[in-house]
Amino acid sequence: MEKYKNIVFNNDGKIIEKLEIKLDVIPKIFLIVVFLNLLSIFIGAFWLELITKPLIVPILLIQKIITFTFLHLLVDEAQTLLRSNEYKDEDEDKNELDTETISSVSVLKDFEKVLQKSSIYNYALFFCFLGDVFLLFNATFLVGLVFFLIAHYIFCRALWGDSNKKQGFVMKNIALVIPFLVYLGTLLYFILPHLKNDIVLQIAVIIYGCALTASGILALNRYNSTSFSSFLYIFIGFLFFIASDTWIAWQKFVLKTDNVFNGLGIMATYIFAMYAITKGSTLGKRYLLSKLENEIIVKKIKEIEEMEEIEKVKVMPYRKSKRKK
What we know:
- By secondary structure, this protein is mainly α.
- The protein has one domain.
- It contains 12 helices and no strands.
- The chain has helices at 2-9, 14-17, 25-43, 46-83, 99-103, 107-135, 141-162, 169-172, 178-191, 199-221, 228-255, 260-324.
């Protein structure tokens, strides 16, 4: 396969190689902001929490956007490679592919589809950011809940699009839904009795609980649909998301108390959830791009082999006629 790789992706197959972009500065800023946010909860400095909490998701989002901006640049580079005349040479072997043949694979179109899918997670992260801002204040708790509900709806769409859909892991093993339904039933059983006097909040909690559970199920449905590392990051991320939101509901509606331990636990699980989901969605796209590269190379090899077979067929009648003479 290696000897054909340069036909599609330039001499060293640099398209995939360049995906390993290291953005060292942003992770360091992220760690500083996380530390300051957890410190603000520990020491009870609400002013510091007001500054740091709204920055957590945007920093992750910025890192993801910058990474995929580079990927868009790589698409442009691929376009240049595919349209160049680098491999068109009069002395070239006939079995090598010209630019028009390579372009027929629709590499650019496939790259763009992959990159467009990644943007869905960005929208969900944006609504998580809005939810973070409004959940800082008790008076706007319901507004924050609505924004997170929108985020989970978008997450569900992204997860469904990333999976094998009806042929996904959970869809083929429907019994795997049972633990999630048990969780949802248990949550509502303990939470709803504490919301007897607020019908609106009861409806909101039921809807949000269903959306949260659906996210977990669809995250599991991605198994075997993408790289294992991408699946693991996103699935664990949503498990931590479920744990964080359950903790919030338990503290707010059942315990009705606020202490340092609960605050740190809720925020730590939420931060890790956001990090894991963002990381997993990026890994998933890199996997798809790598898979796309391999598919293109396989197609090219197949075309070359077919051309070689055609050449053999053309030569055989000539040899037979020569023997008769």
